[in-house]
């Protein structure tokens, strides 16, 4: 395997891959591709986040962003460990309820809420993140019959994303405060969500929120929280040489790695804790938060799911291209590996499990992985792989660390092929216990 893209692996995943037959049996039983999630890992991740954040600031609240993975088992594992949920639709609210998250621990952050969704949040007293002043007006109208706004957060437009269509400028925030005062709402929080992975931008935005919170406190509002959003980078690789990757060989000749920081030095909970510790270096800010018992909320999706899942595709066919290269057609489609949304590869190299028995298996050929659909663009990996033990029909191609966005963000039943199943697997002393991961199914 090209060491520059060899993925980091947890020990349970290493064990599962080295056993070979469990995963292959599951794919035979439940179809290809098959997603496997690990709720025990989710629990462990949550504890690590909580521990590291707690050292940076005493009152942090983690709300798992549901859109990053639709797994019921993982959500339940997070919720039972104490996490809240970041939801964006009525359907995600239902999912959070069914999987043990209380209304109090949810945050409705979707930027385009329907009246029905806002009323639902008001009825259940789910905190609402207001995206724009027009939305706030609509919300205050609905509050007339659906119930008083309990905890509202005003979303800031980050300074580094001046042209974003999400969030508000300082002037618009000011206008919201006037509306809220007139409506008799005296409790608000501030939030933002960044699209880059820079620590400095997050520190800066947290600083802006603190300033706003102190200012509105002086104007008579109580601050119910500061929400620093999600988007903390996840570490997939020990190191990554992007140029080598992009120089191919590539199926379509274009740059294929995208821009994701696959080998981020400060990642996940370490990144989040460092942001908070740096922003709270000023003792007056810290004293303000502590005096008001003001929580800092975070909504990680992807980075909370580190090592929480793998996706296995069965090889259907190998087609010769030329003497140095071939195509492996996988039983599945690129819709099941969502990085392809952005026209780029999911870079961590898949692991080949040789369980097929069709000869010949030629080692070291450049092999491109493609999906089974009728679309030329259905390419699962543009950068070739060169499996050291070769690859044959019937083998498994296993992508690891796929729980964050790579499983079901843009899956499709194209050609009427059913959506891939998910299994939740737990390592026991006697082997793996597993169950189908469906809405509301028990955790283990
Ligand atoms: C998508 C999103 C998140 C989660 O982002 P990750 O990159 O998965 O951590 C959190 N908050 C908001 C508002 C989002 O849109």
Notable characteristics:
single chain, 444 residues, alpha/beta, Lyase, Ornithine Decarboxylase, Chain A, domain 1, TIM Barrel, 2 domains, 9-stranded mixed sheet, 8-stranded parallel sheet, 21% strand, elongated, binds pyridoxal-5'-phosphate
- Count of structural domains: 2
User: Which CATH architecture of the largest domain?
Assistant: Alpha-Beta Barrel
- Low-pLDDT runs: none
The end-to-end distance, rounded to whole angstroms, is 34 Å
Bound molecules: pyridoxal-5'-phosphate
CATH class of the largest domain: Alpha Beta
Description:
- The protein has 444 residues and is of the alpha/beta class.
- It folds into two domains: 3-38 and 307-439, Lyase, Ornithine Decarboxylase, Chain A, domain 1 (Beta Barrel), CATH 2.40.37; 39-232 and 267-305, Alanine racemase (TIM Barrel, Alpha-Beta Barrel).
- The chain is built from twelve helices and 17 strands.
- It has helices at 11-19, 21-30, 39-56, 72-81, 90-98, 115-124, 133-146, 170-183, 199-218, 242-246, 268-279, 283-291, and strands spanning 34-37, 60-65, 84-87, 106-108, 128-130, 152-155, 187-191, 222-227, 296-298, 309-322, 325-330, 351-353, 366-370, 379-385, 396-400, 421-428, 431-436.
- The strands form two sheets. Strands 1, 10, 11, 12, 13, 14, 15, 16 and 17 form a nine-stranded mixed beta sheet that branches. An eight-stranded parallel beta sheet has the order 4-3-2-9-8-7-6-5.
- α3 runs parallel beside α11, α7 packs parallel to α8 and α9 packs across α11 (268-279).
- It is elongated and about 75 Å long.
Secondary-structure topology with pairs:
Elements: H1 11-19, H2 21-30, E1 34-37, H3 39-56, E2 60-65, H4 72-81, E3 84-87, H5 90-98, E4 106-108, H6 115-124, E5 128-130, H7 133-146, E6 152-155, H8 170-183, E7 187-191, H9 199-218, E8 222-227, H10 242-246, H11 268-279, H12 283-291, E9 296-298, E10 309-322, E11 325-330, E12 351-353, E13 366-370, E14 379-385, E15 396-400, E16 421-428, E17 431-436
Helix pairs in contact: 3-4, 3-11, 6-7, 7-8, 9-11
Bound molecules: pyridoxal-5'-phosphate.
């Amino acid at each position: 395997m090209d060491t520059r893209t060899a993925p980091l692996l947890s020990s349970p995943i290493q064990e599962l891959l080295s056993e070979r037959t469990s995963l292959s049996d599951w794919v035979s039983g439940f179809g290809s591709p098959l997603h496997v999630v690990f709720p025990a890992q989710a629990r462990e991740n949550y504890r690590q986040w909580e521990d590291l954040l707690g050292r940076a600031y005493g009152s942090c609240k983690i709300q798992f962003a549901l859109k990053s993975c639709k797994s019921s088992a993982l959500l339940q594992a997070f919720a039972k460990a104490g996490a809240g949920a970041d939801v964006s639709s009525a359907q995600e609210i239902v999912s959070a309820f069914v999987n043990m998250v209380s209304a109090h621990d949810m945050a409705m952050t979707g930027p385009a809420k329907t009246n029905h969704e806002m009323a639902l949040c008001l009825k259940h007293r789910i905190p609402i993140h207001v995206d724009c002043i027009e939305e706030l007006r609509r919300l205050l109208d609905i509050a007339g019959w659906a119930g008083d706004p309990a905890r509202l957060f005003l979303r800031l437009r980050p300074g580094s994303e001046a042209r974003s269509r999400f969030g508000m400028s300082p002037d618009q925030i000011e206008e919201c405060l006037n509306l809220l005062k007139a409506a008799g709402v005296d409790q608000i929080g501030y939030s933002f969500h960044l699209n880059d992975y820079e620590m400095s931008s997050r520190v800066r935005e947290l600083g802006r929120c603190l300033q706003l919170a102190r200012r509105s406190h002086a104007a008579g509002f109580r601050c119910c929280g500061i929400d620093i959003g999600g988007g903390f980078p996840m570490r997939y690789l020990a190191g990554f040489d992007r140029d080598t990757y992009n120089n191919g060989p590539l199926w379509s000749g274009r740059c294929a790695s995208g821009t994701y920081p696959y080998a981020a030095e400060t990642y996940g909970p370490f990144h989040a804790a460092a942001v908070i510790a740096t922003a709270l270096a000023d003792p007056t800010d810290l004293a303000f938060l502590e005096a008001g018992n003001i929580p800092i909320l975070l909504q990680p999706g992807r980075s909370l799911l580190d090592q929480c899942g793998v996706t296995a595709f069965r090889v259907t066919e190998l087609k010769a291209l030329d003497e140095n290269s071939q195509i492996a057609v996988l039983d599945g489609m690129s819709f099941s590996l969502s990085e392809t949304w952005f026209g780029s590869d999911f870079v961590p190299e898949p692991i080949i499990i040789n369980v097929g028995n069709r000869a010949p298996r030629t080692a070291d050929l450049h092999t491109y992985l493609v999906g089974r659909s009728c679309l030329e663009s259905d390419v699962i990996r543009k950068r070739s792989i060169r499996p050291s033990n070769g690859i044959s029909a019937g083998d498994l191609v296993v992508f690891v660390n796929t729980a964050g966005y790579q499983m079901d963000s843009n899956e499709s039943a194209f050609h009427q092929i059913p959506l891939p199943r998910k299994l939740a697997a737990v390592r026991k002393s006697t082997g793996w216990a597993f169950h189908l991961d469906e809405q509301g199914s028990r955790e283990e």
